[in-house]
Amino acid sequence: MSTKQELLQNPIQHIDIKQHNVVALVDAMNHMAYSSRDLARAATIYDMMLRDTECGVILCLAGSLISAGLKQVIIDLLRNNMVDAIVSTGANIVDQDFFEALGFKHYVAGEEYKYGAGDAELREMMIDRIYDTFIDEEELRICDETTEKIINGMKPGAYSSREFIKEMGKYLAENGRTPKNGNEDSIVLAAYELNIPIFCPAFSDCSFGFGIVAHQHARQGKPMCSIDSGKDFYELTQLKIQNPTTGLLMIGGGVPKNFAQDIVVAADILGVEASMHKYAIQITVADARDGALSGSTLKEASSWGKVDLTWEQMVYSEATIALPLIAGYAYHKKAYAARTAKAFAQVLEPVTA
Amino acid sequence: MSTKQELLQNPIQHIDIKQHNVVALVDAMNHMAYSSRDLARAATIYDMMLRDTECGVILCLAGSLISAGLKQVIIDLLRNNMVDAIVSTGANIVDQDFFEALGFKHYVAGEEYKYGAGDAELREMMIDRIYDTFIDEEELRICDETTEKIINGMKPGAYSSREFIKEMGKYLAENGRTPKNGNEDSIVLAAYELNIPIFCPAFSDCSFGFGIVAHQHARQGKPMCSIDSGKDFYELTQLKIQNPTTGLLMIGGGVPKNFAQDIVVAADILGVEASMHKYAIQITVADARDGALSGSTLKEASSWGKVDLTWEQMVYSEATIALPLIAGYAYHKKAYAARTAKAFAQVLEPVTA
Amino acid sequence: MSTKQELLQNPIQHIDIKQHNVVALVDAMNHMAYSSRDLARAATIYDMMLRDTECGVILCLAGSLISAGLKQVIIDLLRNNMVDAIVSTGANIVDQDFFEALGFKHYVAGEEYKYGAGDAELREMMIDRIYDTFIDEEELRICDETTEKIINGMKPGAYSSREFIKEMGKYLAENGRTPKNGNEDSIVLAAYELNIPIFCPAFSDCSFGFGIVAHQHARQGKPMCSIDSGKDFYELTQLKIQNPTTGLLMIGGGVPKNFAQDIVVAADILGVEASMHKYAIQITVADARDGALSGSTLKEASSWGKVDLTWEQMVYSEATIALPLIAGYAYHKKAYAARTAKAFAQVLEPVTA
Amino acid sequence: MSTKQELLQNPIQHIDIKQHNVVALVDAMNHMAYSSRDLARAATIYDMMLRDTECGVILCLAGSLISAGLKQVIIDLLRNNMVDAIVSTGANIVDQDFFEALGFKHYVAGEEYKYGAGDAELREMMIDRIYDTFIDEEELRICDETTEKIINGMKPGAYSSREFIKEMGKYLAENGRTPKNGNEDSIVLAAYELNIPIFCPAFSDCSFGFGIVAHQHARQGKPMCSIDSGKDFYELTQLKIQNPTTGLLMIGGGVPKNFAQDIVVAADILGVEASMHKYAIQITVADARDGALSGSTLKEASSWGKVDLTWEQMVYSEATIALPLIAGYAYHKKAYAARTAKAFAQVLEPVTA
């Protein structure tokens, strides 16, 4: 039987799309069939989004993507002005990205653990498993505690997840968890530095939730912080109103997909006639046939007035394969060159700026 | 081309498990293979949960289930003391159940609409589509507005989704949207009457979100209501602490699955050694191979210390087929007969009670 | 570690649809959404096929269905005049049905074997695994040898799979492997007794293949038997020509689906203008998005002129759940009452009859 | 409404892996999670197969791969000595590869046709659809007729599919359907020139089936040709016996997967202790949970003694994305450089050679 140390020695390494020019490969896929053609069309649509300099690009993240080696892809999209806002599950942002920003790693699990054969012993060793990946649960507890510490440092009040995540970015910057200091770059840090807002509409459903529960437990009866998820929705809708042309780059489905689509309707409710998302791409393996939102087609979203029919594309592929190709295509086509950073976080905090 | 009226004339009818004794059928499936055996084992585990009278049963709902004809199944589980708490996506509770409680319906869409061929014309008519089901968007707007009205009637402050949903139940009771008054029964009403708490951890991500956005927009600068999603987590964790033996009946994955599993860890963080969920069932068609939480096995959850390995079962089936069989099995076995209602909502409001 | 005997003690038991009247349940599903509605519509179409007394019903079988507990369902369809011809993978007919007819069983495998954890030790014990089911490989070898014995007893020549399978039926009848003699009923026997032809278009790809290889090896240089798969196609096409109205009840996809659909085109090539299959149902979990035939929609088949668009239905469900409901529905509706047995095997052997 | 000519103007173009060096990209994927890591491991195993110069590589093809733009990938594997035998569905070899070798094309179908909206009008125009791809049915009929012509030219008797396909290759060579003559290269031609045997175990289930049916119909009562599918099995087993070390590169599942795996058992039945397939890779999106062979894990195959556990890898991906990466990796690593061509077709015809 392996020891904990033996099991946690082969870290996940994040793919660097800057090193792989896939433009010709993806262009070739455009003349094939099935998923390859869909993938190529999606890459082309992402390229169009970026060339349409008015378009605000919203990246949606669901599924365990950062633990899977896609962190650097997202960072590269942020640092190259290819994304203007993020809507994500909490796990990607806190348990995985912020966790790694604190200096921790995810680890490759051997094939034999993939189907659950060793889960009882993993439990004993406090190793958490995500399919074929290991996490040291003791390190994850430090991440939970760090979020509590950050919350404790804030003025009591109701905050959007974006405001909390901004504080997390500030924490990383102020504590030297930066490339400048020899540490790894992170999504939370890059977004903080670049004024790119990150929203987690179900923010208590992650490591941050443990922090807020601990915080509220300690402050019982006293002024405390709370997550105002309505404010999340309000803020993201403001961005739609201020920047009417929008495009969605969605990895996975879930709450982020629904939430980002819904701002079109929310704007309408606030009395502003908002245009549908002009561009929309989704990478997913979810089936449409169970009627759930995660796998529902973007055509279906158009019946709701959320997504325009002209430039939408579903890509049926697991994201670790498809995203490096789609993001790498757009990166190497340099479509971002003509864009000016939208710095959407500033839009939301005009006074502070 | 059909008119809106023609398209919206064949309402979805909710299956009534009380009319179909499937015990012998499901017992027969226990000796077969693949999904039928898994389904039978899941039904048996649900039966066990109910016979274990200490066990608090948490029902998790993700996917568009209520619009699909599963509303009465859930109501029957509530009214027969087979569920003690609900964790759900907002859409099931607000856009679908509360929506129908207001007197509206979902409609059968013809086969030819299923793959998106008519979405442009549906848009024109303000008909929203969920795979093979239609909704009148004008009616949905009334639902949005009703939630705003309810929020406007509340004292400014930060509330858990449970507290808001309780208000929605009160609204239905006070406005005669009850079976007693000749109207249809609803999940929100039944839960209100029976003190069964309903949590929507991503509560702004549904019709209620439109209500809260409109509310906050109108109240700018003045005291207002906010959704405190941390409080959701805190409250559900309290239930775990007060009622240590728990079982999960999960339809679909997403945030509800993760959130309900996480309370074991949250209790631990509050310094209470909590036992893992003793029983866990999930009905899903999500694939495990993309590593996302929705399709991840319950064995994987056991490595996180969230779910016990002994009585867990994944059922690979679309829910409209599997749930009537599993719920119907437990209903007709009458396992609930020995249970006392836990009335968990009272646990959370000792003073008010 | 368990012994072989311990692992092989819990036999798969075949579900008996005659015991479960699911008519009301399935009728209720007709007013729901997603797979339940599709399933109900498919059941209705199967009922229509049977009421259309001119319609020849072709049952297609792919996937390991017999080992999974669906044998009695198929036998009941045959013995109640609800199927007129079968097109199947070889495994279902030979390795599984004929195998059980010889007195052997399939066994329930424990949950812990499902994902491959014990495959190395199973290998040592000569236990073969199909997902969650065990087979004694030594018994399977006897099945292989029996097919060789049957082939050895035939006059050298090129035979269709149908002719071979008829011989297998005769073997069972003559060796007392019949219910009359206290043995279990089988598909091969019932089809033999009722003149229902069974085709396995890829007949060397199963236990029979081992028999024919051994036979041909022993007969090298001497007259021998061969499987003439062209004759299979020719014979099935003759049935289409003689009985123009046809319906397909397909469980799974693969070669049987394609083969049965193709006879429409084959008739055309023989100069007979054949009508498309008037009815078509397929139960499958295969995805359409990889372009493969198994998951391709029946609408796609209509572009090939193989399946009529009016009465076709895909059902997205694993077969062990869906087939008992669909077959049980049609059985209890007694649509077969007005039918006369088509005895298609006699059509193919007018002289012998 | 578009005309037939308008619909058939954008031909599928086959990807050329020689133009895309994906080695660094795939190596990077080896350190990620989920499908990307599986894909990288599969590529590595294919590379190992080729470096193990004793290993005979058997390529299995199921699903509509050639119509999807993967023809040139397969040709490149053949012409660079990276494959020693092929087991395929008939459609890939006859309806698609041989069809294109006759000068015909497959065409890109617009997004709007993908879900079946235009199938009725396609039918009228005699355009056949494979998901997002069009075929001119009139051209396909010429393909059918050509196979009949080839059969008519052969001496009456029972042939393996391999022997028929060799004749098809000879036909192409003798009729100038060769690159030398300015025509496109094809799998059938390349295999013919390189003595690489191609087996289609369900050979009547494709365009060739139409040819054999027409042939047998015309020859009724006279000596005729037949497809001896037992001979297919016998021949492939001979290859396993003569070249004990084998590896499987499987695209899709179905009959080819089962057939190629079964030769280990067949050898055993012929009294030759054969080793399991030493290497095995499968690219598929089929789910394991329905118990069907197509999606069954290679671990399961090891319980049957067919596939060794050490070097096996399932890759969960649609083939048009995964195969160019896996095949391209092995091609650019030049593992084939040290191999001598096995020319397995000569092994099967020692006298003719």
Describe this protein's structure.
Four copies of one chain form a homotetramer. Chain A starts with a helix and ends in a 5-residue tail after the last helix. Chain A is globular. In chain A, helix 3 (34-51) crosses helix 14 and helix 4 (66-79) packs parallel to helix 14 (319-332). Chain A contains 15 helices and eleven strands. The first copy, chain A, has a single domain, classed as Deoxyhypusine Synthase, CATH 3.40.910.10. In chain A, the strands form three sheets. A six-stranded parallel β-sheet of chain A has the order 7-2-1-9-10-11, with helices on both faces. Chain A has helices spanning 4-7, 23-29, 34-51, 66-79, 90-101, 119-125, 137-152, 161-174, 187-194, 207-218, 229-242, 254-269, 298-303, 319-332, 344-348, and strands at 56-61, 85-88, 107-108, 127-130, 133-136, 157-159, 198-199, 225-227, 246-251, 277-284, 307-316. At the A-B interface, helix 6, strand 4, helix 10, strand 8 and helix 11 of A face helix 6, strand 4, helix 10, strand 8 and helix 11 of B.
Largest contact between chains = A-B, 78 and 78 residues
Mean pLDDT of chain A: 95
Approximately what portion of the residues of chain A adopt beta-strand conformation? Answer: 5-15%
The CATH homology group name of chain A: Deoxyhypusine synthase
Assembly state (oligomeric)? homotetramer
Q: What is the name of the CATH topology of chain A?
A: Deoxyhypusine Synthase
- Helix content range of chain A: 40-55%
Using the coordinates above, name the CATH class of chain A. Alpha Beta
The radius of gyration of chain A is: 20 Å
Number of helices of chain A: 15
Total domain count of chain A: 1
Report the major sheet of chain A: 6 strands, parallel
Structural class by sheet pairing and helices of chain A: alpha/beta
* Spans of at least 5 consecutive residues with low confidence of chain A: none
- Tell me the distance between the termini of chain A: 56 Å
Trace the largest sheet of chain A across and list its strands. Answer: 7-2-1-9-10-11
- Just name the CATH architecture of chain A: 3-Layer(aba) Sandwich
Counted beta strands of chain A: 11
